[in-house]
Design a protein that fits this description.
The complex is a heterodimer. Chain A has helices at 49-56, 83-92, 101-104, 111-122, 127-140, 146-149, 159-171, 189-206, 217-223, 241-246, 251-258, 298-302; strands at residues 7-18, 21-33, 38-42, 65-73, 76-77, 94-97, 177-181, 209-214, 226-231, 234-240, 308-310, 313-315. Chain A is an alpha/beta fold. In chain A, the strands form 2 sheets. In chain A, strands 6-7-8-3-9-10-12-11 form an 8-stranded mixed sheet, sandwiched between helices. Chain A has a 4-stranded antiparallel sheet with strand order 2-1-4-5. In chain A, helix 4 (111-122) crosses helix 5. Chain B is an alpha/beta fold. Chain B has 12 helices and 12 strands. Chain B has an 8-stranded mixed sheet with strand order 6-7-8-3-9-10-12-11, with helices on both faces. Chain B has a 4-stranded antiparallel sheet with strand order 2-1-4-5, covered by helices on one side. In chain B, helix 4 packs across helix 5 (139-152) and helix 6 runs parallel beside helix 7. Chain B is globular and about 70 Å long. Classes of the chains: A alpha/beta, B alpha/beta. At the A-B interface, helix 8, helix 9, helix 10 and helix 11 of A face helix 6, helix 7, helix 8 and helix 10 of B.
Chain lengths: 322, 348
């Protein structure tokens, strides 16, 4: 990657103090996103991918907190901004799209009103111009007859249309980065395909970078330029999408890829990773994956591996240097 | 099609329909002059599931696939049509409790389908207490059988003394499977059994289901919205759209040579790893409101090949011509008239 990254996350740590001790949900995650790039973040439930996204936009619910590390947007550090300034970054510079479009829209206001509110909060526009922009946005995200739909409430839209409205909201202030957390998970496949195509098209047109958080490798394959694979709060492998899918280096990534059923290839049995992801209060020492790893050796149990260059990707695995 | 030479299908649905009355209350109908509203969740479905096979049923939300599952196991009573198990009718409730023992259901959500206050051993033993069967005579027999079931699904016998919350989602689904197997059923209805699970856990459960099928000669009705999962596990597949089956064929054929425009659209929409970077045809439109389905073929408003006849006449499920022995059944005027260009999906 050349030049200053748009977003740089450096050794981010998100922790939850509990009576039984501090639980570390995101442990030393470093990521970079270049302008206009789509970075996929994949992992299974509990891997810490959503929390990483939430930490970047300053939406960690207390008692959770950022325990260490930095988040920089361009040259500016944003993880330690006071809430009022962070509010301005959110929406204006970083847009967000969440999984469930019904909970990210206010059911009591028309979508037109919600769009205008977002636009006038972040951009210096007159009410008339704001309305104009809101209508343009709705048309851009593929809502037919935006004039007529403008005064409708969220419940009057279908799931796919609602997600389009949420995308319009995220784009309202022309942010440079969108954090999309499972944007298509609640949708049927045919609608999912529409939303992916829409996100991709809009980002290409506006040069918006996207951090796409999902558990669905298929969505990543279709959309992302680079992929970061997370496991137990850590990034275990990061690299270009084709390399992660076809030439994964980390044993976890390999297992994950093999366990995905395909509509093309015929397989008798799916690859199986034995066991389950560790609970936050019982993350093993050394490499967090070692108890499930068929290749684990002594060092894996003692020392935690950092990301190391392995073929075309970077993999946090001692096998790389063995 | 049949595995043991017996040609009678194990489970058969003949023109089954289920209509739900979702009308506003009587007073509202009277005062606000609202009409009655009928939701035709399942609208004339014919199915035959052979012994020992895995029959996949796919479709998007609201297409009626879960209603079909519930009709078969008797949780709903059909509004019309017949359901037969082993040639005997089971659609009138109470008619055949002995036959119903042969079928069990596995539900989607392993968090909601296990009683949180019961120990796992009690959960798995419940079917044995209700229908003790021939080989269960005493408490010791039950304990013994529960331990065997838990081991069969990849858990330890000692796990029986724990509560469901002590298990992960995948392990809970294993408990559901053990419970379903307790009464030694021949037929399992699995309604989205892996949809709530992570992919690596899903792989474990799918592999387990295959192993159990081989060992116990089970027949599965496997319902899912995930085409890749169905492709992996099913022998034959039916695709549903708005309460009807639009296409039905052996798995290879349906994924390799999809006929119905809706099936093609669904297959195009699935993001797949092998297709990385390849452009897909975007799909227009959404599933219509089932309360006011379109006239004629329910798919016609989204279909690029629709014509007058499609807008008027409901297509019946018929064998598509020109496919030799392994026939595809399709409900499409376009396919019947040869209007729809042939398409072959590359199979690795």
């Amino acid at each position: 990657m050349t030049g200053t990254p748009l977003l740089a996350v450096d050794r981010l740590r998100v922790e939850f103090p509990t009576r039984a001790g501090t639980l570390v949900a995101v442990d030393g995650v470093s990521l970079e996103i270049a302008p206009g790039e789509v970075l996929g973040v994949v992992g299974e439930s509990g891997a810490g991918k959503s929390l990483t996204g939430a930490a970047i936009i300053g939406l960690i619910d207390p008692p959770g907190r950022i325990g260490a590390g930095e988040v920089r947007l361009g040259e500016r550090r944003i993880d330690n901004l006071p809430p009022e300034q962070m509010r301005r970054v959110r929406g204006r510079e970083i847009g967000a799209v969440f999984q469930d479009p019904l909970t990210s829209l206010n059911p009591l206001y028309t979508i037109g009103r919600q769009l205008i509110e977002t636009i006038t909060t972040h951009l210096d526009l007159s009410p008339r111009e704001a309305r104009r922009r809101a209508l343009d946005l709705l048309a851009e995200v593929g809502i037919t007859a935006p004039e007529r739909r403008f005064d409708h409430y969220p419940h009057q839209f279908s799931g796919g249309m609602r997600q389009r409205v949420v995308i319009a909201l995220a784009l309202a202030a022309k942010p440079k980065l969108i954090i999309a957390d499972e944007p298509t998970t609640a949708l049927d496949v045919s609608i999912q395909a529409q939303i992916i195509a829409l996100l991709k098209g809009l980002c290409r047109e506006h040069g918006t970078a996207v951090m796409l958080i999902t558990h669905d490798m298929g969505v990543i394959a279709e959309t992302a330029d680079r992929v970061a694979v997370m496991y137990a709060g850590r990034v275990v492998e990061v690299g270009p999408v084709a390399d992660i899918i076809h030439r994964p280096q980390h044993p976890y990534t390999k297992g994950l890829m093999g366990s995905i059923p395909s509509i093309v290839a015929e397989r008798e049995n799916l690859a199986q990773i034995e066991g389950v992801m560790p609970r936050l209060d019982a993350i093993p020492a050394g490499c967090a994956f070692h108890p499930r790893c068929p290749y684990a050796f002594d060092r894996c149990k003692r020392e935690r591996p950092e990301l190391m260059r392995a073929d075309a990707t970077r993999s946090a695995c001692w096998l790389v240097v063995r | 099609m049949s595995v043991n030479g017996n040609d009678q299908p194990l489970v058969e649905l003949v023109d089954v329909a289920k209509t739900f009355d979702v009308s506003p209350p009587w007073l509202n109908r009277l005062l606000e002059r609202k009409p009655r509203a009928l939701l035709r969740a399942v609208n004339g479905v014919d199915l035959a599931i052979a012994r020992g096979e895995t029959f996949g049923l796919v479709g998007e939300s609201g297409c009626g696939k879960s209603t079909v599952a519930r009709l078969i196991v008797g949780l709903y009573r059909p509004t019309r049509g017949q359901i037969r198990y082993d040639g005997k009718r089971i659609d009138n409730l109470g008619a055949a409790p002995a036959l119903r023992r042969n079928m069990q259901m596995i539900f989607q959500d392993p968090y909601a389908s296990l009683n949180p206050r019961w120990r796992v051993a009690d959960i798995v033993a419940e079917p044995l207490r209700v229908h003790p069967g021939d080989d269960v005579h005493s408490r010791a027999d039950i304990i013994d059988r529960v331990a065997r079931l838990l081991r069969q699904v990849g858990l330890a016998a000692a796990d029986g003394s724990k509560y469901p919350h002590q298990f992960s989602g995948g392990q809970r689904q294993r408990i559901s499977i053990a419970r379903a197997l307790a009464g030694s059923p021949a037929f399992l209805v699995c309604d989205e059994p892996t949809s709530a699970l992570d992919v690596s856990v899903q792989a474990q459960v799918l592999n387990l289901m295959r192993k159990l099928q081989r060992e116990l000669g089970l027949t599965y009705l496997f319902i899912s919205h995930n085409l890749a999962v169905v492709h992996h596990i099913a022998d034959r597949v039916a695709v549903m759209y708005l309460g009807r089956i639009v296409e039905q064929a052996p798995t290879k054929r349906i994924f390799g040579h999809p006929q119905h425009p809706y099936t093609r659209m669904l297959l195009d929409a699935v993001p797949d790893l092998e297709l990385s970077g390849k452009a897909r045809t975007a799909v227009a439109g959404e599933v219509p409101n089932p309360l006011s389905p379109p006239r004629g073929c329910a798919f016609h408003p989204r279909c690029p090949y629709a014509n007058e006849r499609c807008r008027d006449e409901i297509p019946r499920l018929k064998p598509a011509r020109g496919w030799g022995g392994e026939a595809t059944d399709v409900a499409c005027h376009g396919v019947e008239e040869g209007r729809i260009p042939a398409r072959v999906v590359a199979t690795a």
